[in-house]
Specification:
Shape: globular
Radius of gyration: 16 Å
Largest sheet: none
Strand content: under 5%
Order of helices and strands: HHHH
Length: about 100
């Protein structure tokens, strides 16, 4: 049996797609660095080193949007893209894990 088909991504400009991709990469790295969820310093260190480059890519995507006159972030459209790309699950790794029950 095939897995359910994902909904299509909303129509995005190239800069918006770069923005979303870079944002999710930063979120993934922050999730790996999160001291409440990480287990090894080496993995967190590697993620922190990579974060510098991905933050630069995120800045470049936003700069490109601004330069092209895309002065507004269409939050509903971009949120739809984040949902299709599993952004909710990925962002949960940045938060605190639930407290264990005594």
């Amino acid at each position: 049996m095939l897995p359910p088909e994902l909904p299509p991504l909303p129509a995005l400009t190239r800069a918006e797609a770069e923005f979303i991709d870079s944002y999710l990469e930063v979120v993934d790295l922050l999730g790996q660095i999160n001291p409440a969820r990480s287990t090894h310093t080496y993995g967190a260190l590697r993620a922190a080193q990579a974060l510098v480059g991905r933050a630069g890519a995120l800045k470049e995507a936003l700069t490109l949007m601004h330069t092209r006159g895309e002065s507004e972030v269409h939050a509903a459209t971009l949120a739809g893209a984040l949902r299709v790309l599993d952004g909710e699950r990925r962002a949960r790794r940045v938060t605190m894990p639930p407290a264990s029950m005594p």
